Amino acid sequence: MDGINYVDEGQGRPALFVHGVGTGSHLWRDVIAELRGERRCIAIDLPLHGGSDPRDDLSLPALAEAVEELCEHLGLTGIDLVGNDTGGAVCQIFAVRHRERLRTLTLTNCDVHTNTPPEAFKPTVELAAKGELAALTQVLLDHPELLAQTALGEGYERIDDPKAVVDAYIRPILSKPGGGQAFERLLAGIDAKDMIAIEPQLTVLTVPTLLVWGTGDPFFDVSWARWLRDTIPGVREIVEIEGGRLFFPEERAAELVPHLRRFWAHT
Fold this sequence. Notes:
Shape: globular
């Protein structure tokens, strides 16, 4: 398991948390703080993000295999898997490939089927494909107040400390050699074909699944949670977080945790 960083706190049944593009394991810190007294909480930094190294292959299937590498390294089975944003897409791919490792699956606002990448994120992906995103992102290091004008900033209801967000997520990516170009490659490689390809496997996925969806997300409308409900036979329910945006697991962790506890306790 080369170059993969992760958080591993607490003891008990394993809960594994997967973030999306442009964030990191730090996204789950408050969720983990609530749960580490009762669970073993593991949060991966996907390749290129946080403390993890970049890789040549940063496609969604390759990111799912990085999660599998971590599970193999730690000997994880009976996992309660939780994903957000692109990490939710990674979790869907992981779930259909490695069903035997999972006890439950929880998806929060994330890429689903043809909404990969979402329409509102496509201008950012287009900049990445043109090789123009890295330089623009670099500006945030010295001018974090501009964060609210970016796609990352749109994922929050409010940003009280934009510098803290930039330092937690953007700086670790850009500080790596070739990190800006790798980030462009990652975004440009997000392709709906990878999600469309797993639809037949999702239709027979019986892993108990919870959907917790913020209703104020400009990227992932709650209609996509309903698509998952209608596609995955293991879905137990959709919980709506009123007004929650993409990163509500970070902003409103105290609202997510009770739903995780309840779901895990009754599964």
